[in-house]
Each structure stands twice: as structure tokens, then as C-alpha cells.
């Protein structure tokens, strides 16, 4: 029998996506509710929608950052990763 040449996928791909979707949903809903509660301080409809949109944006952004690890790009470099100065001085 011929073997299929498909790339190896982790066995828990569905579980990983379920966890990501659950995290994104919770982080979208909770800040949106907080923004809706905070919108009572605004009189104009634009201010109320802006408060709600800000809460939703914060939630979606934090879920994306945790799911895809975008904060790892901004970690402090190790001293061994920093190249030596071209003059040979420290």
C-alpha cells in the first residue's frame, strides 16, 4: 500500500482550536459588557458605541496576542544574542 505524503499535524488540533475560540469568545464578550456598562457615562450615541467598540477591541486584541504569542517578539534579548561592538570595545 502506498503511504500518504501529508504533513504531520498534531493530534490535538481540534482541541487547540476549541480552546482558542473559547478564549476569543470570552475575551470579546466580557470587555464588551464592561464597555456597555461604562457607556452609561456618555450621553451621545457615538460615545456609547465607542465605549463598546473599545472594550471589544481590547478583548479581541488580547485574545489574539495570547493565542498567537505576538508578545514573544517584544521580549528582552539575551546578552548572548547581542552582537559585540565593531570596535571591540565593551
N- to C-terminal separation? 62 Å
Give start-end ranges of low-pLDDT stretches.
none
Shape: flat
Number of strands: 0
What is the percentage of strand-forming residues? under 5%
Helix content: 55-70%
Please describe the biggest sheet, giving its number of strands, its sense, and whether it closes into a barrel: none
Write down the overall mean pLDDT: 78
Q: Rounded to an integer, what's the Rg over CA atoms?
A: 22 Å
Secondary-structure element sequence?
Answer: HH
Helical segment count: 2
Structural class: mainly alpha
Question: Quick summary of this structure?
Answer:
The chain is mainly α and 90 residues long. Helix content is 56%, strand content 0%. Helix 1 packs antiparallel against helix 2.
Report on the structure:
By secondary structure, this protein is mainly alpha-helical. Helix content is 56%, strand content 0%. It contains 2 helices and no strands. Helix 1 packs antiparallel against helix 2. The longest helix is centred in the first third of the chain and has 26 residues, at 13-38. The radius of gyration is 22 Å and the shape is flat. The chain starts with 12 loop residues before the first helix and ends in a 22-residue tail after the last helix. The model has no long low-confidence stretch (mean pLDDT 78).
Amino acid at each position: 500500500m502506498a503511504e500518504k505524503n501529508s504533513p504531520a499535524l498534531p493530534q490535538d488540533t481540534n482541541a487547540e482550536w476549541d480552546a482558542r475560540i473559547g478564549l476569543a469568545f470570552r475575551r470579546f464578550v466580557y470587555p464588551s459588557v464592561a464597555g456597555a456598562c461604562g457607556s452609561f457615562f456618555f450621553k451621545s450615541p457615538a460615545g456609547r458605541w465607542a465605549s463598546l467598540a473599545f472594550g471589544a477591541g481590547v478583548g479581541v486584541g488580547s485574545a489574539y496576542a495570547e493565542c498567537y504569542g505576538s508578545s514573544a517578539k517584544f521580549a528582552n534579548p539575551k546578552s548572548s544574542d547581542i552582537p559585540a561592538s565593531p570596535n571591540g570595545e565593551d
